[in-house]
Protein 1
Amino acid sequence: MKVFVTGGAGYIGSHTLVQLLAAGHEVCVFDNFANSSPVALDRVRQLTNRDMGLVQADIRDADALCDAVTTFAPDAVVHFAGLKAVGESSDLPLLYYQTNVSGTMNLLAAMDAAGCTRIVFSSSATVYGEAHYLPFDEDHPIAPTNPYGRTKAMAEGIIGDWAKATSDASAVLLRYFNPVGAHESGRIGEDPQGIPNNLMPYVAQVAVGRRASLQIFGDDYDTRDGTGERDYIHVVDLAAAHLAAIECAASTSGCEAVNVGTGQGVTVRELVAAYERASGRPIATNVVARRSGDVASSYAATTKAARLLNWRAAFNIDDMCATSWRWQSTNVDGYGAGETQ
Ligand code: NAD
Ligand code: UFG
């Protein structure tokens, strides 16, 4: 199959490319490297011994995107490209709406021009907002609490309307819970710029000595140990969910939202303990006030993914920490050194 991958150089995109190429798919990546490095693509080529097409351009550039999609003429599109920092989305809302919402509309128009009717979209559990009940199932009300989440909810709605209006269209909206971990080789992984916003990359940088101590944002939540509980999903499992979703899109029509998680909640303290086991290093922590906007617990109902995609998570938190550590300890500055071998 010919698969057009926006944002393919990023964290989740690069792990998905490995599996797409290993499965024999022909791939074209469209990325402006706003939050990624071409070195990630070099590493994917080395891991798979396969090449891919690359167009370096911006999804906000409708003409460039349309040219790339019509030239490649894909059977399916996987749409990762976007901005994802919750805090930044409150400071720069228009940038987020232009990139995540207008960029998605540009992509759908390009697919129309190329006659491509299948899309898998990177959505987020953040579209649910405050939990009315747990686990979150796909029928839980959509009420995001920040501009980033609203861009994802809007893009979901636009893709749903496009699918209704386009004959034979098939769209799978994958609502990721908390992607972490790295490829088992340790050659590709998450490489956040600046101070990491998310827990596991922060813990990894403490373990490797780049940061002194993890701040735990509150230990007075109504959870097993008082710290926040999340559904961490191994990025390699998440990549496999994309291949399953492409298959699903090839054999169905309409638009379906599907959670991608393990169904298991892990607290901050449990994750820190798992990382200490994986790395053999102590992780210093200090408890500070709750982070504004955080919820106590979030985890997925996983039955729809099993039924529709025939996909289930295979890896546990120890696997996630072990692979994160392999990546972090062998690439202390991420892709920063710019080394391409
Ligand atoms: P990432 O930042 O590593 O990857 C995004 C990629 O898109 C990068 O390669 C970046 O350069 C590219 N990109 C950004 N703006 C672009 C533009 N205007 N034009 C072309 N390319 C552009 O992020 P990721 O963690 O791999 O996330 C991928 C997708 O999954 C995003 O849409 C994100 O919102 C979504 N998501 C991520 C998480 C998470 O925790 N990582 C959770 C839920 C959803
Ligand atoms: N936490 C800390 N210290 C830190 C960072 C995080 O204690 O330095 C805690 C948080 O309070 C929370 C847990 O670790 O309890 C997880 O926090 P993350 O920032 O890693 O993840 P979130 O669940 O807050 O959000 C992430 C992404 C969102 C996405 C959401 C669901 O940042 O974009 O997962 O997919 F929407």
Protein 2
Amino acid sequence: MNEIIPGTLYLVPTPIGNISDMTERAMHILQQADVVACEDTRHTGLLLHHLGVRSRLLSYHEHNKHEAGPRIIQLLEEGSTVALCSDAGMPVISDPGAELVRLAIDAGISVVPLPGPNAALTALIASGLDSRQFLFVGFLPKTNGKKERMLAEIKTLRVTLIFYEAPHRIKRTMRFLLDRLGNRPAVLARELTKKFETFQRGTLEELTKHLEMELPRGEYVILVAGTGEDTEADLPKDKGSWQEEAVTLAESHSVKEVSRLVAAKWDCSRREVYQFLLREGK
Ligand code: SAM
């Protein structure tokens, strides 16, 4: 086991549902750290208690990060060893921590990541979808405009798309994905590493219908196939997109003019249209 280095920020993953997935090294770091910074001190306190670890807990979350971050940096500068974990899985991945990592790098503090549990990759490797290339989208933005823009940007990608979603929004998000991406092969990975772990494989339409008949329970990762030769045939007739309109208009208008016209009509920016057309060789 490596020696722990004072004044280092360790990024420590914790299990996403199965306590046995705690690695020996992660346990060692949590045991040796002067401070464990975590999202919810009660939640992580229970985990540490279960593991027989007695380290000082310090809360670091979305709502106190502006005060807690500099305090943690000060502790690190004074030579304390800090382990950062989130409620479950990899800290920083759809969880707080990114800002603390940046603060630490700016302050010249060494940041040491530990590998470990992560819902997205765990879901991907058993999904059966293309795992050579994938895009981790995580949670979709909350506002409609941003959500639409993101979908417009990723809709044409050939790589597997991975989304996180809370159980109470899963049906709505599945319907939204079906509507915007078309009916593609998809997988719902539920309750990973837990007793009721399930993988539902089908098309977005089938899985959405299925979800609508049951009460969604537990945690889900949504995986959707990218556009590919084998999936294109499944896609319903497109309702149209700004990209298509931009390409058509570019036949008879300048790129600048098309950017202006399309951005005025669709929920996208001129810059986005402009750059899209350049990529398309217009
Ligand atoms: N940091 C975590 C990681 O590395 O995977 C992700 C935390 S994010 C706040 C929580 C989301 O991850 C959930 O809404 C769900 O989409 C996904 N997730 C976490 N644990 C899961 C599990 N056991 N099974 C399925 N999805 C899970």
Protein 3
Amino acid sequence: MVHFVGAGPGAPDLITLRGAALLERADQVIYAGSLVNPALLTRCRADCRILNSAEMTLEQVLAAVEEAEAQGRTTVRLHTGDPSLYGAVREQMAALDERGIDYDVTPGVSSFCAAAAGLRAEYTLPGLSQSLIITRMAGRTPVPGRESVEALAQHGASMVLFLSAGMLEQLQAALLRGAYTADTPAAIVYKASWPEERCLRCTLSTLAETARAAQITKTALVLVGDFLGADFTRSRLYAPDFTTGFRKGADGI
Ligand code: SAH
């Protein structure tokens, strides 16, 4: 059995209770060493076989899983944040399907949630944006043309960009070709939830320069949108005049 587990964004106590229990029982752990906090591995049994997937190919990961399966041993495949975002899990699941190896998935706290927490922000604010676009700049992994940053930026919605901290000049220019302006609030969050977390607020016009001054080129998210600004509208849900299924408001409906 293989358990795909979301390790959370970095802080070792941001893994789920289910993920922690699976780590504690695992015979083998294959962790994404580029981003998973090694402190999580202290949960593993002393006799657990621990492999760092940053140094492995998909084939080598699968070979290690098959070896464990042949001995009736369980594997935890530990991915950073939530496995469903930029986790390259689908190809692993497809290979396990082909081999008839059973697996399940335990979600994790994605780094974009930890970044909002670090900034004390809410992505969805009434009157500003009710959508969050999660995307990335094209790099060695291409992005379909219809999903280019500038195309998505036409919406002016709240946006969070993964895997793009190394190309902020291009990112800034692409975002400015959309509905955002030079004054649109932005932020760079480096290592959200880690002890070395840094939350840098800026505007779209100062995005690249802010990251350069702080020497941030990786392990960071870029957030952009009016949700990072000072203005917002109160929610209807908690308004005194608003009746819900749980509370009668002054509107008497
Ligand atoms: N599955 C992960 C994302 C993996 S892609 C998740 O749900 O968070 C790797 C990218 O995620 C990094 O390049 C960076 O952009 C972002 N990232 C991962 N952890 C981060 C953290 N703690 N703080 C800021 N960005 C992070």
